[in-house]
Amino acid sequence: MREQLALLPGYLTAHLQLALAALLLGALISVPLGVLVSRRRGLQGPVLGLAGLIQTVPGLALLAVMVPLLALFGLPSIGFLPAFIGLLLYSLLPMLRNTVTGLAGVDAACIEAARGVGMTPRQQLLRVELPLAFPVIIAGIRTATVWTVGTTTLSTPVGATSLGNYIFSGLQTRNLTAVLVGCVACALLALALDGLVALVGWGFSRRRPALLVLALGALGLLIGYTGYTAVRDSAGPVNGSGVAPVRIGTKTFTEQYILGEILAGQIRRVTGRSVQVVPSLGSTVAFDALRTGGIDLYVEYSGTVWATLMKRTGPAPARADVSAAVTHYLRDEHGIAVAGALGFENAYALAMRRERAEALGVRRISDLAPVAPRLAMGGDYEFFDRAEWQSLRTAYGLSFRERRSMDPSLMYQAVGQGTVDVISAFSTDGRIAALDLVVLEDDRGAIPPYDALVLAGASLQERDRAVIAAVAALAGRIDGDAMRRMNRAVDEEGRSPAAVAEKFLDAPKL
Amino acid sequence: MAALGMMIEVRGLTKTFGHVTAVRGVSFSVPAGELLVLVGGSGSGKTTTLKMINRLVEPTAGTVLINRTDAATIPGHVLRRRIGYVFQKVGLFPHLTVAANIAVPLRLSGAANGNIRERVGTVLELMELPAAFGDRYPAELSGGEQQRVGVARALAAEPRVMLLDEPFGALDPLTRDRLQQSFLGVRRRLGLTGVFVTHDMLEALLLADRIAVLKEGALVQVGTPAELLRAPADEYVERLLETPRRQRQALDALFDGSRSAPAS
Q: If you compute the radius of gyration of chain A from its CA atoms, what whole number of angstroms results?
């Protein structure tokens, strides 16, 4: 708990920076836009329709789609910007709609009176219509506040720190304390901001200037402080050396968190450079980020590049050949270098509970095909969309009674409890041994090999060869057993990825 | 010379909404200090005519001259600041106190704070409202009190012309009578020129210096109450006068009866 709370100031500040910036600019856009469309009825349908359409896009997808979109325009595609733009778009609708509704609800007699006493259209708006619509507009801002503070947790997968860091990494590393701290902090923040905005509304409509000043003052201080931290964070590099830190991305599972910390530790120890870990990136977000320079390094698996990026299906060649083909492809197509192969494979594999597999007489995937129509299969979020699944289906004619996508950490629980019969496991996962699962043999070679490769982006290659040399020294240092042990230390024994990484780096080299 | 004192002159005023002609070629003049009452049934165009005088409704054709100046040459909001307007639906601003409501026209014309406070006190007194009402909100007042504030607001910027759109129509008879009397008193004291719209011929007869009768957007007759009663121009005017006449007869009968009753 203490370890988690130590992270809170950083996460909370970053969360506030994102949420407040999005809400503030969102309000500055949507209230005037609301006024405009209530003046020009022709615009009302299209504008509200568009805002509504944005709202129907799931939050995570909206944020994730910003990454390739920003990259397309050559802008920083991971971190603050994509999260900020996604959240900004997300915050518009409630404020926009309430502004329009609030203005439409103003008594026509009041508007005529405003004209009748000689107000200009601008005076009518500022002195009569907006004050009368204010409670409804405030209600819209409150809705947007709660939504935005909650949705900000989804900034983590696009590389922006937020309270979502607790939730994403906590779920993956089975650290419920972290998940809990993240959720509670987020809920309290939402309630606090909502309360402050509500206070502004009450102070205004109940004509309590003191309350109004107090609430506005508190909001102003919060915005000021958050703005100050944002400027401070972006101004000077952490170590004061004037060199940008080396940014290491990780995907959203335990092994990636550990490897991220190992890379970070290795670089710090060998080169003394400052390093920043950008955790919990979506799978394609991580690759896009590397390609566009948002991050400098991350660990990818040869089979993933082979199947997902090179779109190869059918039986794959041997492990070394796939790695060689992938290395060429990355260098030629994307200017990305493979700094080294860590020495282990983390393959997609189909796994079952041992007793269930034995009862059904399933040892190889080809044994599974005849019984599959009676079984339920669980896969991680991307599995059923991946080329590997297509290959498996074509090679073995697999067709399950039911397919369920779920969070990887819950997937193991589900197969352990018998909710599903087969899962798409990762071969290095510590839980395979812990839950006494068997990995089914891929007797037709449908799944390619998955060598763990450290990828280095083009900008790092030009900027700092020493860093690449430092991580290259890790090549071949981690075998499958070592990786499984480390995964297990986090997943089953409750150690932190950083601690496990430290222990690995402290161990004498063989 | 007569033209010098003439405050409002309306010439050939016409308003069409799409294919519907609401007002057709209405002309009249209101000399300084006189109250003209526009009477007619619903849809007769009386309110539209009134609103064209301060350009709340822009005329399709015709001219409005105020003190011999063409109203069309003055920006709408500037014109409206010089003319007091009392609304049928009162139209007080619910988020402002009574004092702030009355102060609106003063603030719009850029009066100083000290003058505003003094002027608000004056018009509250003029409309027989207690000074303490200034701090209240419109929702805390009765309908009659609200309309007194409405009239006070229209008087605040000391306009020389007042327009009133069925201002007392929604009030109970007692309140209405008292407000009519207050208004008559104030108008005479300030020498205001006014146009007053009502559908109630009795109200018109009691308040008007002259009455203009409208029917289907056109002017039927203009004259003093006495002239109308003596020589109604047509059946329509006759019919409008019928109700007050019948009420008078009924009242006379009642008064006669009550006078003779103790004797029998």
A: 27
CB A316 within 8 A of CB A449: yes
Amino acid symbol at B178 = R
Give the contacts of A54 (CB within 8 A, at least 6 positions apart): A62, A89, A90, A92, A93
Query: In 3D, which of B121, B126, B84 has the Cα closest to residue B105?
Result: B84
CB contacts, 8 Å: B109 with chain A: 118
Buried/exposed code over B97-115 (b: 16+ C-beta within 10 A; e: otherwise): bbbbbbbbbbbbeebeeee
Whole-number Å distance between alpha carbons of B209 and B222: 11
Question: Please, which residues bridge with residue A402 across strands?
Answer: A376
Q: Which of A109, A114, A115 sits opposite B89 (nearest CB)?
A: A109
The rounded distance, in Å, linking the Cα atoms of A336 and A318 is 22
Residue B95 has its nearest CB partner, among A109, A115, A132, at: A132
Question: Of the candidates B103, B82, B83, which has an alpha carbon nearest to the alpha carbon of residue B92?
Answer: B103
Question: CB-based contacts of B121: which residues, under 8 Å, 6+ apart?
Answer: B131, B134
Counts for chain A of helices (H) and strands (E), in that order? 23, 10
What is the value of pTM for the model shown? 0.79
CB atoms within 10 A of CB A457: 24
CA A55 to chain centre: 19
Q: What is the pLDDT of residues A391-445, one digit of tens each?
A: 888 899 999 999 998 877 788 888 988 899 999 998 888 888 888 899 898 888 8
Q: With CA atoms as reference, report the closest residue to A261 among A297, A305, A237, A294.
A: A297
Tens-place pLDDT, residues A316-332:
888 889 999 999 999 99
Contact A113 B92 (CB under 8 A): yes
Q: Which residue is listed with tokens 């070592």?
A: A482
B25 close to B199: Cβ distance less than 8 angstroms: no
Residue A343 φ/ψ, nearest 5 degrees = 115, -5
Taking an 8 Å cut-off on Cβ atoms, the answer to whether B56 and A112 are in contact is yes
Alpha-carbon distance of B15 to B216, in angstroms, equals 12
Instruction: Enter the tokens of residue A283.
Output: 């799978």
ipTM: 0.89
Question: Who contacts B201 (Cβ-Cβ below 8 Å, separation ≥6)?
Answer: B39, B240, B241, B243, B244
Q: Which of A117, A127, A130 to mutate to test the interface with B (most CBs of B within 10 A)?
A: A117
The three-class DSSP label of residue B17 is strand
Q: How close B139 gets to chain A, by Cα (Å)?
A: 13
Length of chain A: 510
Residues of A in contact with B85 (CB under 8 A): 116-117
DSSP states along A147-168: HHHHHGGGGGGGT--STHHHHH
Q: Is residue B87 less than 8 Å (CB to CB) from chain A?
A: yes
